[in-house]
Structures are given as C-alpha cells and as structure tokens.
Design a protein that fits this description.
Elements (H helix, E strand, L loop, with lengths): L1 E3 L1 H6 L6 H13 L3 E4 H10 L10 H14 L1 E3 L4 H12 L4 H13 L3 E3 L5 H7 L2 E3 L3
Parallel strand pairs: 1-2, 1-4, 2-3, 4-5
Helix pairs in contact: 5-6
Length: 134
C-alpha cells in the first residue's frame, strides 16, 4: 500500500507554491492502492488552518478528508505504533510526530510513503520506501 504524508495533502491545497501544488494534486489522483494514515488525517485537519489566508476553510478540509476516506483505506494505529515510534526517534533522530508516521506505516503494512520529510536512512532499517514527490 501507498500513503502520503500530511505535507503532500497540504501542498495539494495551497496555491502559494504552484509547482508543489500541481505535483501533489497529480499524485493524489494517481496513487495506486492508497492508504490514509489516522495520524495524517488528524494532522491534515489541524494543518489546514494555516490555509485560511488563501481561502481554504475547515469545512473544506473536513469534506476533502471524507472524500479521501472513500478512495483510500483508513489505517488505524495499534499500540505497537507507540513502541515503534520510540525506537525510531532514537534510531533515526526523527521528531516524535515523524516517528509516529513511520511507525504507523510499518505497523499498517504501508510499503511506500510519499513525503519530503525523510531520507533514505529510514528506508534502510524499516523497509519503507520513501519517495519525495517534489
């Protein structure tokens, strides 16, 4: 399964960087076997508040989140995610929230994560393919 990080979802709705916006939108339409991580869904709603100055509302964010759930499988975290996140924060020097996303991918059977936040060192020890779509 494939998942996208919160930053990709936000860029797809933020017209201030037209190149990233276009690429993120294209990816959102073309992602095969998509999965929506619970944490990404929550972060998307929280981060979308930053798009208010460009006319993007919380109501739009909630509607689009519902649409994503129609097309992508929602992956809920298990208790194992916290344990893995603890390991990943020290092993990869990730922030807690980034480690939670990587842990949720590993625990949820995600094989590819589209994000601009991680490098190949995460892939080497987790088996998770990291793809920067930008």
């Amino acid at each position: 399964m494939n998942a996208v990080d919160t930053n990709v979802l936000i860029y797809a709705r933020d017209p201030r960087d037209p190149i990233k916006c276009r690429k993120a939108r294209e990816l959102g339409h073309d992602i095969p076997d998509g999965a929506l991580l619970w944490q990404v869904a929550c972060e998307f709603i929280a981060a979308s508040r930053k798009l208010t100055p460009v006319g993007y509302s919380q109501a739009q964010a909630w509607r689009e989140l519902q649409q994503l759930r129609v097309f992508w499988k929602l992956i809920l975290p298990s208790e194992k995610v916290l344990l893995l996140a603890e390991q990943f924060t020290s092993a990869h020097r990730l922030s807690f929230w980034d480690a939670m996303i990587v842990a949720a991918c590993v625990d949820g059977g995600i094989t590819r994560l589209y994000t601009e936040d991680f490098d190949d060192s995460v892939s080497k020890t987790t088996g998770l393919e990291i793809v920067n779509p930008f």
